[in-house]
């Protein structure tokens, strides 16, 4: 025998679910930044990944995966188009030949430098228009949400 969930429960989830509202907001923000970064041939995810590699020393996969809240397999897949476009190289770690380091190439660094002003402009526009300049509160809430662990 099938048990039906009442439509009122659907409305409750639609109106109150933090996960749903966060996913919707993330998708809308992603589209907004994708549109702004399209002239540079980047998606918002690729921009974030390139930015995560913009360090004094090339990082290994694990810390980048943690920063971007990705598993290693997803990160490896996300790196492929960046490698193909010569924006990123995966190199052997000289101190541990089994480990791989992620290197932002000069071409990747140049592209990132061109895209940053657009990111800054779009980011400031969003923060000022949608958040009335109060982005710190939203960042704090999102950081707290990002630190929850599974039940």
Brief write-up:
By secondary structure, this protein is mainly α.
Helix and strand arrangement:
Blueprint: H1 7-16, H2 18-37, H3 44-53, H4 61-67, H5 72-84, E1 88-93, E2 96-104, H6 106-130, H7 135-146
Antiparallel strand pairs: 1-2
Helix pairs in contact: 2-6, 4-5
Mind explaining what this structure looks like?
The protein has 151 residues and is mainly alpha-helical. It has one domain: Winged helix-like DNA-binding domain superfamily/Winged helix DNA-binding domain (Arc Repressor Mutant, subunit A). The chain contains 7 helices and 2 strands, in the order αααααββαα. It has helices at 7-16, 18-37, 44-53, 61-67, 72-84, 106-130, 135-146, and strands spanning 88-93, 96-104. The chain has a two-stranded antiparallel sheet with strand order 1-2. Strand 1 and strand 2 form a beta hairpin. Helix 2 (18-37) crosses helix 6 (106-130) and helix 4 packs across helix 5 (72-84). The longest helix is centred in the C-terminal third of the chain and has 25 residues, at 106-130. The chain is globular.
Strand content: 5-15%
CATH superfamily: Winged helix-like DNA-binding domain superfamily/Winged helix DNA-binding domain
* Tally of strands: 2
Q: What strand order characterises the main sheet? A: 1-2
Q: From the helix content, strand content and strand pairing, which structural class follows?
A: mainly alpha
Q: What is the helical fraction, as a range of percent?
A: 55-70%
Number of domains: 1
CATH class: Mainly Alpha
Stretches where pLDDT is under 50 for at least 5 consecutive residues are none
Report, as a whole number of angstroms, the end-to-end distance: 30 Å
What integer value in Å does the Rg equal? 19 Å
CATH architecture: Orthogonal Bundle
Determine the mean pLDDT.
Answer: 93
Gross geometry? globular
Q: Predict the CATH topology.
A: Arc Repressor Mutant, subunit A
Q: Biggest sheet, open or closed, and with what strands and sense?
A: 2 strands, antiparallel
* Element string (H = helix, E = strand): HHHHHEEHH
Number of helices: 7
């Amino acid at each position: 025998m099938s048990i039906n969930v009442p439509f009122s429960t659907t409305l409750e989830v639609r109106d109150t679910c933090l996960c749903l509202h966060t996913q919707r907001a993330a998708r809308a923000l992603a589209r907004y930044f994708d549109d702004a970064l399209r002239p540079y041939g980047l998606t918002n995810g690729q921009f974030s990944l390139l930015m995560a590699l913009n360090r004094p020393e090339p990082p290994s996969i694990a810390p980048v995966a943690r920063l971007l809240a990705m598993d290693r397999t997803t990160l490896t897949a996300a790196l492929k188009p960046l490698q193909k476009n010569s924006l990123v190289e995966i190199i052997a770690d000289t101190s541990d030949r089994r480990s791989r380091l992620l290197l932002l190439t000069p071409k990747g660094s140049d592209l990132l430098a061109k895209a940053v002003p657009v990111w800054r402009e779009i980011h400031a526009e969003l923060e000022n228009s949608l958040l009335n300049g109060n982005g710190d509160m939203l960042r704090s809430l999102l950081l707290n949400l990002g630190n929850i662990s599974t039940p």
